[in-house]
Amino acid sequence: MKNSKLVWIALLIVGIVSSCKEAQKTETNETTTAAIIESKIIDSAIAYQKAGGKAEFMDGEVLQITDENYAHAETAKNYRNWMAKGANEGLVHLRIMAPRGAKAPTVQMNHDCLYSVAITKVVNGKISFEIPEDVLVYTSVQVVDQYGHGQHYIVTKGKHTLNLDTADGTTHAFLIFRSGLEKGIEVAKENQNKLTTWGLVSGDFKVPNYDFAAVDAKTDALRSEVVGKAFYYTFPRNEKDVTDRHQWNLECALGWGGASPIVNESNLYSNSKMYDGKKSYSTTFMNPESVYFTSITVYDAQRYLFEDEDVKNINSNTWEVNSDNTVTISFNCGEGAKNNIDTKGQDFTFTLRYYGVTDQVLRANNKDAVPNRLNPVFMMKEVTRQ
Fold first, then answer.
1. pLDDT of residue 6
2. Phi/psi of residue 192, each to 5°?
3. Looking at residues 312-339, what average pLDDT do you find?
4. How far apart are alpha carbons 55 and 216 in whole angstroms?
5. Cα(11)–Cα(300) distance, rounded to whole angstroms?
6. Residue 61, class by beta-carbon neighbours within 10 Å (0-12 exposed, 13-18 middle, 19+ buried)?
7. Of 86, 87, 162, 249, which has the fewest Cβ atoms less than 10 A away?
């Protein structure tokens, strides 16, 4: 009898504990569900921010910056910047070409496309989004996790549900929708209007409470390391693929949010060294013939677009190709120079982007490549201004 009572008491205690755990689980689910909102289109990122848009932070002590967590912290900064523009509520459109200078929400933005951004929750290890069938221009969606890795780069039209590697603790993804400018800005805006919130789970992201002044200081220090040399990105697809932490930190500092190159589909990026803006240069290289297009954009020492709006970029939608299928890009060579980019006397670095990189270009543009005519950095030389 005594043993029966003990068993009964033990079962009662187990039942009570189980009920408490279930109640806690239900409460957690209700809290999470209450934070989720219906995803919406936010027509203007700038208007949203001007109206008081701001990021919501996690509670707790300020997190200090280390080599190990820098990529996570730099990523949190970018999530924060776009959250203030509405990205946590759905899909937010930047209706202008990327802002110039340090006011840009992300380093090394470009003028090849208009950006739309969403922060979406990972549900059962998956995220979802749509590239409509009736898009008007080049349209892609890049999926960046909370450690800065571009896990997916999608150009195929339709509705997509993708697995996300969450082993590093990623709970949300940063979706970068690109609408190409090959037909002009008004058509790119029309293309943005076709984008939908299908699949997005919005509303419950909070920014990790990092010391963002220290993040910026770390970023500046990393950038200063590569001013005098060309830099090639690897963009590992997840944390498991990071074999050189310092290399990865440099990549986050110089070009956060880049894509892992996939032949004929996603992009390859590389940076030149810094050049003297008072001198003239040119580079002549084999036409890369990217699947979509190739671009060259100049940046200042902090890797931001120049404040001067007369400093333009150039891409294969408009550049002139030589008769031997090479391309000559000129820098500060005068109005009569072929495919000239004028930095107005300002020191510069340029970034190459191959949208839909070919296999031969991918092999010719990396830190281990030997000098070759498919690599514009190798062919750069000082010339006389025309």
1. 42
2. -55, -40
3. 96
4. 18
5. 69
6. exposed
7. 162
Q: Which residues contact 15 (CB under 8 A, 6 or more apart)?
A: none
287: exposed, middle or buried (Cβ count in 10 Å: 0-12, 13-18, 19+): middle
The residue with tokens 């509670």 is 59
Cα 262 to Cα 257: distance, rounded to the nearest angstrom? 15
Q: How far apart are CA 146 and CA 244, in angstroms?
A: 18
Residues 76, 208 contacting (CB under 8 angstroms): yes
CA 87-220-54 angle, 5° bins: 25
Q: Are 43 and 195 in contact (CB under 8 A)?
A: no
Measured torsion, CA atoms of residues 241, 246, 247, 248, in degrees rounded to the nearest 10: 50
Task: Provide the token pair at 134.
Answer: 């009736």
Pair of tokens at residue 45: 């990122």
Domains, in order of start, for the chain: 40-222 (no CATH), 261-383 (2.60.120.600)
Tokens in use for 54? 């701001």
Query: Coil, strand, or helix at residue 200?
Result: coil
Name the residue among 343, 260, 226 with its Cα closest to residue 296. Answer: 343
| pLDDT band, residue 12 (cuts 50/70/90) | very low
Between the alpha carbon of residue 256 and those of residues 116, 146, 270, 284, the distances in Å are 16, 12, 13, 28
pLDDT beyond 80 at 10? no
